[in-house]
Design brief:
Structural class: alpha+beta
Distance between the termini: 77 Å
Largest sheet: 8 strands, mixed
CATH superfamily of the largest domain: Alkaline Phosphatase, subunit A
Bound molecules: 2-deoxy-6-O-sulfo-2-(sulfoamino)-alpha-D-glucopyranose, calcium ion
Number of domains: 4
Length: 686
């Protein structure tokens, strides 16, 4: 039944029930419900039938929406796994919770909603995907996948070490959630986060779902063969094209032929590892499901657009089969609640996913861009008798709002400075007059996988303005979502939109000030080359630099003779988890961005003066440094090419590193750090 018709029917039923049972009359705030938070990875709203999917049916997720609320305009603030999860836990955008890109380490000492609920008497548990690198804090019980985790017979991390669990990740995670529900202390309210790996790449469905979507073609998006005209030129370089970047063996599990097997590229070699994790029955189910299809593909060997179409069908069907598994998990959890009506009556059930995903739009898989497909997060919530069935929330909401919502429901004050706002009034059908009219977005992981440039932007109900700020990709896009819902033509330079661009720019500036985000300023005029850096601002006569990757750097080309001295003063900024800072020297001979880099600096936390040679820092010389934990450290780097020596000194510490014979000299100078924020006095060169 289409959602609208179902809604009419349901609202009639709900009204009747309300008349007898006083539905939605009771206050939500402070009612201390249980919270069952079911969360998946990369599940786009347009692959949920309650959101009008053209592709698949998700009856169990739809049931949550039918019996509760569906958020029509819910967005993430940074379309990536770790960052979205860190935001959900803290109610803060990435720059404030410190987790800007996958691979950062979540600082578990900061306040999170599970921790605050635990302190307020809740039992707290998380099962499944975590992906925040540090040990989970604030949970009475946790059993999580290491990093991305595996689909088949996955390993889990627990307080007592690593365990392998037989079965498919979605089913195993569901069972872990059900087991915990059974054995929890029924006297206390609970938070249970059931977090699925699915439907994340490389889309390995459970055997039970392999039969779905057989014998028919899924509709193609209108932009499957996008030529990326009229938008940021960097879009054409994105490495997430179904045509060019999806791999036949690893991503689509087509077995390599005998001729292909010895020549597989890195990613495709992981095909064998995935197969090796399966047991005989699982492998047999896969072979039975795909043998004929694979054989026909080899025989027909489609080329050009026909090949892209075939890849799209295989990719999307496996993605949707994974979604079907997640939907079944939701069904199992709802069935458990049906069988425990007292618990059900007092449980808020939430379904969401860390960000959306491209399902072939623009020819892409993956996410990261501020485009609707991945910016949107599905969000549905049910609490029988408390949230009116069939409620639709049209307001702009965001993952920063989850923590304040859960806290308000539990009657726990949100921490000072939290970015999000409680959704409770929206759930009650009483939207505050001053609800936000725009959401903020900031994506950082530019240098890593998929080549999507770093960006920040703003989205209102009708328009979207994005600024790409990296050196070399500096540019703007503006989309009119009403007249161009597929975001195919940027009107950033269209005179007809000059007023709108001004208005949105002002909004963007205001949001950055409101959230205190000064990251994304890279001073390209002073340091035209950078990688892994989130912020460089001129401060206190020098520069403050935040590198949010290991070995982040910002450089400028500079004439440096055979003998030179660089001096600066480094200051560790309080409150940063891993403090360090380096003067960076790039070798002459290649262009600056590709040159081998030497790092000479201070590891504050380890109290060491360190010289790191090129080649990933394997050559390393160090000396202990007396440091009181606060004082600025004056650093001197003396290079003498005739003597083939680099000498670093700071206080009493001195480190001498030999320079290789073949080194032609240095041609660029700058600043660097590893996952740290540091202040550098102006570099003085003599
Ligand atoms: C892996 C995937 C990428 C994906 C990231 C981040 N490659 O690196 O395609 O964008 O995860 O995804 S894979 O070869 O390992 O599948 S996220 O959801 O965790 O942010
Ligand atoms: Ca994800």
């Amino acid at each position: 039944m289409p959602r609208t018709r179902r809604l009419v029917l349901l609202s009639v039923l709900a009204a009747a029930a309300a008349a007898t049972a006083g539905v939605a009359q009771q206050p939500l705030a402070g009612a201390r419900p249980n919270i069952l938070f079911v969360f998946s990875d990369d599940h786009a709203a347009h692959a949920i039938s309650a959101y009008g999917s053209r592709l698949n049916q998700t009856p169990h997720i739809d049931r949550i929406a039918d019996e509760g609320a569906l958020f029509r305009a819910n967005f993430c603030g940074n379309a990536l796994c770790g960052p979205s999860r860190a935001t959900i836990l803290t109610g803060l955008h990435s720059h404030k919770n410190g987790f800007c890109r996958n691979g950062n380490v979540f600082d578990g000492d900061q306040p999170t909603f599970p921790k605050l609920l635990q302190q307020a008497g809740y039992q707290t548990a998380i099962v499944g995907k975590w992906h925040l690198e540090s040990t989970p804090t604030g949970f009475d019980h946790w059993i999580v996948l290491p990093d991305q985790g595996q689909y088949y017979n996955p390993d889990f991390l627990t307080k007592d070490g690593r365990v392998r669990m037989p079965g498919h990740a979605t089913d195993v995670t569901t069972q872990l959630a059900l087991d915990w529900l059974e054995r929890r202390d029924p006297q206390k309210p609970f938070v249970l986060m059931c977090q699925h790996k699915a439907p994340h790449r490389n889309w390995l469905p459970a055997p039970a779902d392999l039969g779905a979507f057989r014998g028919r073609d899924l509709p193609e998006p209108a932009t499957l063969f996008d030529a990326y005209e009229g938008r940021l030129p960097a879009r054409a370089h994105t490495e997430m094209e179904i045509a060019r970047h999806l791999t036949l063996h690893y991503d689509l599990m087509v077995p390599p032929t005998a001729a292909e097997a010895p020549t597989l590229a890195d990613l495709d070699r992981a095909y064998a590892q995935q197969r090796a994790r399966m047991d005989d029955a699982q492998r047999a189910a896969w072979d039975a499901a795909f043998a004929a299809e694979d054989e026909a593909f080899r025989r027909e060997n489609p080329l050009g657009r026909e090949r892209v179409r075939w890849l799209y069908q295989r990719y999307l069907k496996n993605y949707l089969r994974c979604v079907q598994g997640v939907d079944r998990s939701v069904g199992a959890l709802l069935a458990w609640l049906d069988a425990h009506p007292d618990v059900k009556a007092n449980t808020l059930v939430v379904y969401s996913s860390d960000q959306g995903f491209f399902l072939g739009e623009h020819g892409w898989y993956d996410k990261r861009w501020m485009d609707e497909e991945c910016l949107r997060m599905p969000l549905v919530m049910r609490w029988p008798g408390r949230i009116a069935a069939g409620r639709e929330v049209a307001q702009l909401t965001q993952n920063i709002d989850f923590a304040p919502t859960f806290l308000e429901l539990a009657g726990v004050p949100a921490p000072q400075g939290v970015h999000g706002r409680s959704l409770v009034p929206l759930l009650a059908g009483e939207p505050p007059a001053d609800w936000r009219d725009a959401v903020y977005y900031h994506y950082y992981e530019s240098q890593a996988t998929h080549r999507v440039p770093a960006m920040y932007g703003v989205r209102t109900a009708t328009h979207k303005l994005v600024r790409y700020y990296e050196p070399g990709v500096d540019g703007w896009e503006l989309f009119d979502l009403v007249n161009d819902p597929d975001e195919l033509r940027s009107v950033a330079d269209d005179p007809a939109y000059e007023g709108m661009r001004k208005e949105l720019t002002a909004k963007l500036v205001a949001l950055r000030a409101q959230y205190g985000d000064d990251t994304g300023e890279l001073l390209p005029a002073r340091f035209p080359h950078s990688a892994g850096v989130t912020r460089i601002v001129a401060a206190d006569g020098g520069h403050r630099l935040w590198a949010n990757a290991p070995g982040g750097w910002a450089l400028r080309a500079q004439q440096l003779g055979p003998r030179f001295d660089v001096t600066t003063t480094l200051r560790s900024l309080p409150g940063k988890p891993q403090q360090n800072g380096f003067v960076v020297l790039a070798e002459a001979g290649a262009n600056v961005a590709d040159a081998a880099r030497w790092r000479v600096g201070v590891e504050f936390s380890a109290r060491k003066l360190v010289v790191l040679g090129p080649m990933g820092g394997k050559a390393r010389w160090e000396a202990p440094l007396l440091w009181d934990g606060q004082a600025p450290v004056a650093l001197r780097v003396a290079v003498d090419l005739d003597r083939r020596e680099l000498v670093a000194s700071a206080g009493d510490a001195r480190v001498a590193a030999p320079l290789p014979r073949e080194l032609a000299g240095f041609a660029a100078l700058g600043l660097g750090a590893s996952n740290a924020e540091t202040h550098f006095a102006e570099l003085a060169v003599r």
